[in-house]
Amino acid sequence: MLNIPMVDLVGQYNKIKPEVDSAIQEILSTAAFINGPHVKKFQENLQEYLGVKHVIPCANGTDALQVAMMALSLEPGDEVITTTFTFIATAEVIALLRLKPVLVDVERDSYNIDPAAIERAITPKTKAIVPVHIFGQCANMEAIMDIARRHNLYVVEDNAQAIGADYTFSDGTVKKSGTIGTIGCTSFFPSKNLGCFGDGGALFTNDDSLAEQIRAVVNHGMKVRYYHDYVGVNSRLDTIQAAVLDIKLKHLDEYIAARQYAAAYYDKAFSATDKIITPKKSDFTTHVYHQYVMILNGVDRAKLMQHLQEKGIACAIYYPVPLHEQKAYQDSRYKKGDFPVSEYLCENVIALPMHTEFTDEKLEYVTKTILDFIG
Ligand SMILES: *Cc1c(COP(=O)(O)O)cnc(C)c1O
């Protein structure tokens, strides 16, 4: 029996160990833990990789989303449209800032926010749209940016799961995920596609004055030391984390290719059964497979998960409950049944192990175990 975890961060570390260890050792011996030289170096290298004017590092992806909304000066009561099929952080910061989350459903094929549903949810109070590039492929940004232009709305991309994905517009222009909207937000949580050894995050923008505002917000609302023009937060990326990320950034395209290889292996293995609906790729975006999430069609999910567990194969449900059914987010505007696609996905999806350290032997073991079970 093989043991296959959801992610294999130890295997990934072992391949870059000497470089990472010596970078960390150097930081320990200089004690430049906050705002050390690696932070600026990583920021510049990420700007170049993404082709974006400004990267502002911060402490985690949730902070990035909160800081984005603070920097845009959104006011209590302003409506922010987002998807009900996402990780809670997206809606959490909207609620914390006393903005009003307006939830919409997703597309069944891509699991991404449905532009037609966004359009229907717009009111005179709408200020921003937060598309989440779920599981590693971009939402339909051309349609979303078009809606935003027509209604004069900000677009904050939640790019925590899709760093490195390429979006192709109908005129042939290619942009990296997170660099298309007003602000892009990402997370460097260890299991994300570009992950550090703790918490980390960043914001991206091409707007100079917005970048200046974001830099003030993450630094206690100050532009001049000890003069606080805004209420801000304390949100920094540690030097050690920046050094790790700077090393891993050089390997990001390789890591993405390894994930795509595993996904293609899964796709092919399951192509002959109608009991599994493999994740569909949208044609305007590459898929960087933060997660490989497939839909079960007439298979008992709980039994399959138990079987996989017994065979040493990890699996997970992203996400078991849509935002509008979460206890803390109960709202008289919404009830079960309002977002049928998201609810269907929550009941039928399963995520398989996905990381950068697979071998064909491991992939064969996972796919064969599943195919044997579903018969
Ligand atoms: C991981 C994640 C976040 C939050 O990132 P943290 O660094 O854990 O705060 C936000 N949105 C989505 C979609 C995520 O997957």
Task: Describe the overall structure.
This protein folds into 2 domains: 9-104 and 112-249, Aspartate Aminotransferase, domain 2 (3-Layer(aba) Sandwich); 252-374, Aspartate Aminotransferase, domain 1 (Alpha-Beta Complex). Helix 1 packs across helix 8, helix 2 (37-50) runs parallel beside helix 8 (239-249) and helix 3 packs across helix 4 (89-96). The chain has helices at 9-30, 37-50, 61-71, 89-96, 115-121, 141-151, 208-217, 239-249, 252-269, 301-310, 340-348, 360-374; strands at residues 54-58, 79-83, 100-104, 126-130, 154-158, 166-168, 174-176, 183-187, 201-205, 222-224, 227-228, 276-277, 292-296, 349-352. The chain has 12 helices and 14 strands. The longest helix is centred in the N-terminal third of the chain and has 22 residues, at 9-30. The protein is globular. With 375 residues, the chain is an alpha/beta fold. The site of pyridoxal-5'-phosphate has 15 residues, from helix 3 and helix 4. Pyridoxal-5'-phosphate binds at residues 60-62, 86-87, 89-90, 132, 158, 160-161, 187, 189, 199, 201.
